[in-house]
Amino acid sequence: MDQAILRAARDLLVERGYSGTSIEAIARRAKVAKTSIYRRWKRRDDLLFRAAFAFDRGDPKGSGSFADRINHSVRLTARELRSPIARSALPGLVEACLRVDDPLPLGRIAEIEIASIGERLNESSSRKLTTKQARDEAALVYDLYHGVVIMRLLRGERLSAAFVKRTLEIIFDGVLK
What is the span of the domain harbouring residue 127? Predict the structure, then answer.
């Protein structure tokens, strides 16, 4: 049932855009009751986020070096943001982030990644960081690389391996000192 609901939401996002995709329309397309949807997703925004972004990023602790983990996350983010579904959903999701107190799934996923980055950062840094310092710096790293990815994609530019490598080198040179 979850897959039918998500498929219906994805199709409607592409066909109608964020504002034109209602729970009623999703339920009708998926051939389920609205209550079935609300049992699984607290809000329409949560469902549309889940439909737009696969966010199957594997084990949040990941394997490999700190730089490898960040590089992998950058590539996944870029791939997700290029999809027609994400392009349809993103404006509405950004607006939803501004009007609700409870963070959308993106915020919850970001917190998991930031915690993982903070642990790696503490292991990789030449200085000993408190948990709060590691978390604060990890959030900065997370925001920096996601900002770079988003801005590059908004300009219609590719994310080449060389560009990602150089961007991460610049970030790490500042953070890991």
Answer: 54-175
